[in-house]
Amino acid sequence: xxxxxxxxxxxxxxxxxxxxxxxxxxxxxxxxxxxxxxxxxxxxxxxxxxxxxxxxxxxxxxxxxxxxxxxxxxxxxxxxxxxxxxxxxxxxxxxxxxxxxxxxxxxxxxxxxxxxxxxxxxxxxxxxxxxxxxxxxxxxxxxxxxxxxxxxxxxxxxxxxxxxxxxxxxxxxxxxxxxxxxxxxxxxxxxxxxxxxxxxxxxxxxxxxxxxxxxxxxxxxxxxxxxxxxxxxxxxxxxxxxxxxxxxxxxxxxxxxxxxxxxxxxxxxxxxxxxxxxxxxxxxxxxxxxxxxxxxxxxxxxxxxxxxxxxxxxxxxxxxxxxxxxxxxxxxxxxxxxxxxxxxxxxxxxxxxxxxxxxxxxxxxxxxxxxxxxxxxxxxxxxxxxxxxxxxxxxxxxxxxxxxxxxxxxxxxxxxxxxxxxxxxxxxxxxxxxxxxxxxxxxxxxxxxxxxxxxxxxxxxxxxxxxxxxxxxxxxxxxxxxxxxxxxxxxxxxxxxxxxxxxxxxxxxxxxxxxxxxxxxxxxxxxxxxxxxxxxxxxxxxxxxxxxxx
Length: 550
Prior knowledge:
By secondary structure, the chain is α/β, with parallel strands linked by helices.
């Protein structure tokens, strides 16, 4: 995030895009609601009528995958109305005239045709965003899990740059991370293209720095993504894999392909707190301790580095993740020194090699968390990025074109399927699914479908339906609700033991990040009889008028 989470409460305008934060980031959602109560404007851009729309001044229910057309049109409105921040652009932005020319075809009429959002609502949202004293953009996987995910994010950055909303309080462009410490994992170098501290593996100076620190030659080429790694496992180029804290078999698209990849390996290691579906395929399983059972640190979405302290002993043979990795490395007799005695030693090495962490120590974060970059021991931290200037010169506006989804409904597969999360099941239900209390709230998977579509298909609440795509099919219960728009259905992937949703999701990826297009798949739906031993009475009832399920 470019800005801190507490700042949200003082925002004057909030543009929440592709984020069902009420269910996926509920604490952040509380701050958004507080800002609304203080008079802030809120506009929600989402195909579904998510709970956050109840608090919004405007809901822009765009068609799946039409984000670039919508945000380009908003940028054109801002420029046509003369609402861009001319002084900010002059001092800190390049490519404005080129962007202005590029946006000419992105009229309100064109955006309405592509996105389905009324032209006047697009115009209203654009003007409110541009006129606000401080306007923050908040997004999650609803933006990034598309074949054009990078362009989606860049189109939002364009809006922030032309209005001067980068580098000021309660504004910015703010991705809300999908899992605990996903930001910290990136900070530590768990990326195919970066060393710790987001230092490029393709930068000769960075390569030399880490070769000197670690005493081994480093490959000057960036690595591959997980998606590519699975492909390489299938064709035999990768023989072994070590998966840490990831239930790959459940969370990746095209389960058939993922299963084939894992089964093709000569050797699979899984390091996790639980015996997940993926762990059941492993040759070796390392039991990992939970966050309450370790001493260490993590970094949250707004770059705050925080201490975590051991509150209980791990059960059985479970050990901290860093300890497991270092112990294996020592037994491999690598030339790199892996003889860490504590998590603090790991942290100190990270700080020594990463300029953004250089001023941090356990003693400092014991006294209170700090947001990186913290370049020296006297630096107070950086809650707001890009104040005054950008690190690499001027902000560069991007010329982006609308690219339709890789799949669209047709006669054989007439519906869009989009996927996401539900509050009680969190992500893939790996942890919350082990608590009986959450099962009371969400006992099973269901397909959310609009009443008009259910009537046409002869479906009612509690019926069973077959959902079929070009990859496979699943059977689940039906919940009739106006949360999902006509022509679009929704499922989570939290009940793999019952419904392996990713049998039907779309494996096509953004060519630059290789992020799968989880949010758009073409499917067919038909009523079926309840599977043997299960009755329709087990399905949850939906509120057909409300924004969510009761």
